[in-house]
Specification:
31% of the residues lie in helices and 35% in strands. It is globular, with a radius of gyration of 15 Å. The protein has one domain (3-118): Aminopeptidase (3-Layer(aba) Sandwich), CATH 3.40.630. It is of the alpha+beta class. Strand 6 (138-148) and strand 7 form a beta hairpin. Helix 1 (13-26) packs across helix 3. The structure holds coenzyme A (COA).
Length: 165
């Protein structure tokens, strides 16, 4: 499969928002956000986020099928760190190295600017955990009952970090 990976800009806001909300809707147990948390955001608000953070997308032709973002932490003493967020691939594109291409693009960008990348992942999301471990991320803590789903199910979140230096 040939997919193109590129940084998303303001003009991708509507497609990005559609894909992100799809991920929240289809993966209640994998994401810490529900669709209603972000469904109200205007295209301009989403565009501002794409302009601020480094967000990459995987395209099958013109269609956005995968996304992942890197956000620098603000602050004089914390600006050596970045948070990896929103990793999502449409199901039919998984298991083929597309997630690797998204991660490689994020880390290539991050290496010039940050020393540490952190992320959170649900403790029972084995596929994502294995993916992050394959890239060298290690678990440094677990937040018990970090998330409570609509059905009242409590989920623990693993806190992971990768040193870029
Ligand atoms: C998390 C996510 C982005 C990872 O992408 P993925 O394509 O599923 O993950 P991988 O690249 O690790 O591929 C999955 C499997 O295919 C294998 N694989 C990857 N690239 C491959 C390739 N080119 N050829 C053959 N096999 C390959 C991997 O080894 C892996 O096997 P494993 O699970 O036995 O270790 C994706 O599963 C997803 O969007 N999940 C739903 C949302 C989610 O959980 N997001 C993370 C929130 S923190």
């Amino acid at each position: 499969m040939t997919l193109a990976i590129r940084r998303l800009g303001r003009g991708d806001a509507a497609d990005f928002q559609t894909l992100r909300l799809e991920g929240f809707r289809l993966h209640e147990r994998e994401f810490r956000f529900a669709p209603e948390d972000e469904a109200h955001l205007t295209t301009e608000e989403v565009a501002a986020r794409l302009a601020r953070d480094f967000v990459v997308g995987a395209f099958d032709g013109e269609t956005l099928v995968g996304v992942a973002g890197l956000a620098g932490v603000a602050g004089t003493k914390t600006k050596h760190k970045a948070l990896l967020w929103g990793m999502y691939l449409r199901e039919r594109y998984r298991g083929e190295g597309v997630a690797d291409a998204l991660m490689a693009a994020l880390l290539d960008h991050g290496r010039g600017t940050y020393e540490i990348v952190t992320l959170t992942v649900m403790r029972d999301n084995g596929r994502a955990l294995r993916f992050y471990e394959r890239w060298g991320f290690t678990i440094y803590g677990v937040e018990p009952a970090s998330v409570k789903t609509a059905e009242g199910l409590y989920l623990d979140e693993a806190l992971m970090a990768l040193r870029l230096t």
